[in-house]
Amino acid sequence: MEKEHLKLRKNQFRKTNLKGFTLLESLVALMMLSLIFLLFFSVLENSQAIIKQLETSEEKAWHIFLIQLENELEGCSIEEVYSNKIGLKKKQAKHLVWIENKLGKIVKVENGGYQPMLIKVKEASFDKKMASVEVTVLFENNQKFVGRWSLIEENRDEQTL
Q1: Long-range contact list for 108-114, CB < 8 A, 24+ apart?
Q2: Which of 27, 97, 99, 154 has a CA-to-CA distance to 106 between 20 and 30 Å?
Q3: pLDDT of 1-20, one tens digit each?
């Protein structure tokens, strides 16, 4: 009789299904949740680094533009300076080459064609100040850069030769 009573008791425990998580399932769920949070925070950190890099891309573009403009000015004399463009005259050429602000770009216009030199420009201005030319550029992300070149007067050099 005791044996039957013990068997009944064991069967009762087996038949009752308790719904819930085991310790192992809880640990796996907690580990997955922590991995999701780690991935989320690493994505946030990387996005901040990407934003910073995108901001400096305008600075790189500005420096490349300065090098290009310096190379253009090297063999040229500056004939005319307006608020939105500069007229350059090459020594061997009879026509003017223009560096101007057009439709959000600074372009080089020569013989009817144009070459983009700087893009994503919100505003650009060219000023002649005494013996120098100053270029001020405001990019679409509101970063502002200023470049200045000293002018060499071609007439004095030609007269001394």
Answers
A1: 108/72
A2: 154
A3: 556 655 655 555 555 566 77
